[in-house]
Amino acid sequence: HGADTHPSTAFLLIEVAESSPAYDSGPKLNAYASAGIPEYWIVSTQRRCVYVYRSPLGLDYAFKATAVDGESVELRPPLEFVILPAALRVRISSRHSGVSPSGLLTR
């Protein structure tokens, strides 16, 4: 797989935010919107929620929503999966801190 096969854009960006929600929902959001990324999600492991941004409009997104415990977020076609904020688990080890895939995605 050479450089000529690398995609030039992304359909969806998912940011897992453990300690930088202001940066992820500010400068990063502005950059992704201005680049025309159709969909941007911020998964907050601290708040156990998912912030969803769709339809870029200048430096912002026209559609904004938050999914919390008891709710789910569905990705629009062509990619179809659901994320369940209530299933977010933080895994901490000496080498890595992140979101455990257990229970996170469903089809």
**Oligomeric form of this entry?**
single chain
Please state roughly what percent of the residues sit in beta strands, choosing from under 5%, 5-15%, 15-25%, 25-35%, 35-45% or over 45%.
Answer: 35-45%
* Spatial extent as radius of gyration: 15 Å
Strand order of the largest sheet: 1-2-3-4
- State the helicity in percent bands: 10-25%
What's the helix count?
2
What does this structure look like?
- This protein has about 110 residues and is mainly beta.
- It has 2 helices and 9 strands.
- The strands form 3 sheets. Strands 1-2-3-4 form a 4-stranded mixed sheet. A 3-stranded antiparallel sheet has the order 5-6-9, with no helix packed on it.
- Strand 3 and strand 4 form a beta hairpin.
- The radius of gyration is 15 Å and the shape is globular.
- The two termini are about 30 Å apart.
- The relative contact order is 0.16.
What labels describe this entry?
2 helices; 4-stranded mixed sheet; 3-stranded antiparallel sheet
Give a brief outline of the structure.
The chain is mainly beta. The chain contains two helices and nine strands.
